[in-house]
Amino acid sequence: MKTQLSAKDIDELTEKARSLRIEILKMLTEAGSGHTGGSLSAADIVTVLYFYKMRHKPANPEWRERDRFILSKGHAAPVLYAALALSGYFDKALLKTLRKIGSPLQGHPCSCKLPGVEISTGSLGQGLSIANGIAMGIKMDGLSSRVYCLLGDGEIQEGQVWEAAMTAAHYRLDNLCAIIDNNGLQIDGHCCDVMHIEPIVNKWEAFGWHVIDIDGHDIKAILDALNKAETLKGKPTMIVARTIKGKGVSFFEGKVEYHGLAPTRDELEMALKELHR
Amino acid sequence: MGERPQQSTPAAQSTVKKAIATRDAYGEALLELGRQRKDIVVLDADLSGSTKTGKFAKAFPDRFYNVGISEQDLIGTASGLSLTGKLPFASTFAVFETGRAWEQIRQTVCYSNLNVKLVATHSGITVGEDGASHQSVEDVALMRVLPNMTVIVPADAHETKQVIHAIADSYGPFYVRLGRAKVPVVMPDDYTFQISKSFTFHLGKDANIVAMGIMVSAALEAAKILRDEGIDVGVINMSTVKPLDNEALLKASSACRLIVTAEEHSIIGGLGSAVSEFLSENNPTKVLRIGIKDDFGCSGTSDELLHLYGLTADNLVRSIKEALA
């Protein structure tokens, strides 16, 4: 686990995030279905976690002292699969099997089928409770591992999220850092139209969390926030990452229809041109 | 509860014993496990006094988590603890545990095949005065349908203790259904519980009652009355409802012309359904299902409710006679 970023590190991570986006788009196009927008919006956060911040061993996914990552917004499976493949958990060629019969890369992550996936997710609202339980277990064992949980912003409309929010604060789970991928969109439209979620920061503060509000596409800001969270004792941290749905591909950015649509072959070609630019 | 009538087998003779609520046995079993194993953790959702997990909480405060009135979070938190190698027991009332948090149990516990033990108390109508909102007559159906889930309904306190120890030693998701009211101890002193093994008190030539939970006691009483009248009725304690003890069911159904299921649960989706499903495919036999008939419970004392819904030895006797006639 490193804490200081050099200019070279930032360049490398930016490049890595670009690679993640390319793999996400390729696998989704190959699958012909899946969630493009929310995978791309989380790419920078997941990149910083998997390729800089988290202590993990791809050759030994069950390593007891690892940091844990829970993808509560399980529909962003492609960003997790890309991170796992590029970290070396499995052969990158497997990404082509996403959503296909017999593949360990299920439409939503399944821990029984794919090493590196901590827990099956996909039904929204459940990840934070699980992250709490892991954080409690780690504390009982006296380990210094940290737990990261990535939620969608629409996801916080689920009541269980707020049950878990209370539990994390009550048990002072300062080894837990949750992140909201706040891209402002959900399937049926803008979150503010479907069901208001703001003011997000005030809500989490009121629930007893330390809240850090950042640009979720700024590599340095993401790492600074993750580092800051580690120094805060006595309460869990929520990083509200302001992101753009479909980030990295101009014609997907901010488009609600690409929540659950995969790119066509033509769109993939155009998208890759943009990303390689 | 009065003394049990004499039974014709040595096993059944030992039914002349005191009555203890299965939830009390659970509280004691957790204490024993807590002393034996450091990996046991217990979670509750603001009902630790009623579920009896409070005893564990008092003895091992560092290994007890009260998550407040939030059953969905209860299941998720227990799941997370299991992912760090802990052995979580999560308890609340049956209706809340299996109903309010069903999808969490499905998605997180069963789909990921976690080592999480769900032990719910206050099942069935013997919850009593609290009424239908707190009485669960659907929980076995809800749990039985889930892949990877094992469902156990102990007949008495003696069996409950053994069940709790057995599931602690067996990997995977388990649902154990316990009650609030005192029930007579019916299992023999030398009885040893094994997952997916039923216990046959007596094999009847006319009919056999396959019972779970508190209905085992009523079944034994009914069988005694019927045998005194010359009708040979056996009793099987099918404490593991999933997976069923198929061998015992084949044996019982081959020995008689009527199988009777008895459960303090809806006859839709519970033990009656499970037995019917198996027998219709493997040894078609007439099955009479005694249980709650597509209905909710209501307020009353547990004894009044058992009479109202026909979950008594007398109603078993009457129903079996009619079915055999």
Average pLDDT figure of chain B: 95
CATH topology of chain A, what is it called? Answer: Rossmann fold
The shape of chain B, in one word, is: globular
Which structural class is indicated by helix and strand composition of chain B? alpha/beta
Question: Helix coverage percent of residues of chain A?
Answer: 40-55%
CATH architecture term of the largest domain in chain B: 3-Layer(aba) Sandwich
Task: Output the CATH class name of chain A.
Answer: Alpha Beta
Q: Strand count, sense and closure of the main sheet of chain B?
A: 7 strands, mixed
Could you tell me which chain pair has the largest interface and how many residues each side has? A-B, 34 and 29 residues
CATH topology of the largest domain in chain B: Rossmann fold
Q: Strand order across the biggest sheet of chain B?
A: 3-2-4-5-7-6-12
Order of helices and strands of chain A: HHHEHHEHEEEHHEHEH
Structural category of chain A is alpha/beta
Strand content of chain B: 15-25%
Helix and strand layout, with pairings?
The complex is a heterodimer of chains A (277) and B (325).
Chain A: H1 7-31, H2 37-41, H3 43-53, E1 68-71, H4 77-87, H5 127-140, E2 147-152, H6 159-170, E3 176-182, E4 185-186, E5 189-190, H7 191-194, H8 200-206, E6 210-215, H9 219-231, E7 237-242, H10 265-276
Parallel strand pairs in A: 1-2, 2-3, 3-7, 6-7
Antiparallel strand pairs in A: 4-5
Helix pairs in contact in A: 1-3, 1-4, 1-10, 3-4, 3-9, 5-6
Chain B: H1 10-13, E1 19-21, H2 22-36, E2 40-44, H3 48-51, H4 54-59, E3 64-66, H5 71-82, E4 87-91, H6 94-100, H7 102-110, E5 117-120, H8 139-144, E6 150-152, H9 157-168, E7 174-177, E8 182-184, E9 199-202, E10 207-211, H10 215-228, E11 233-237, E12 240-242, H11 246-255, E13 258-266, H12 271-282, E14 286-292, H13 302-308, H14 313-324
Parallel strand pairs in B: 2-3, 2-4, 4-5, 5-7, 6-7, 10-11, 10-13, 13-14
Antiparallel strand pairs in B: 1-8, 6-12, 9-11
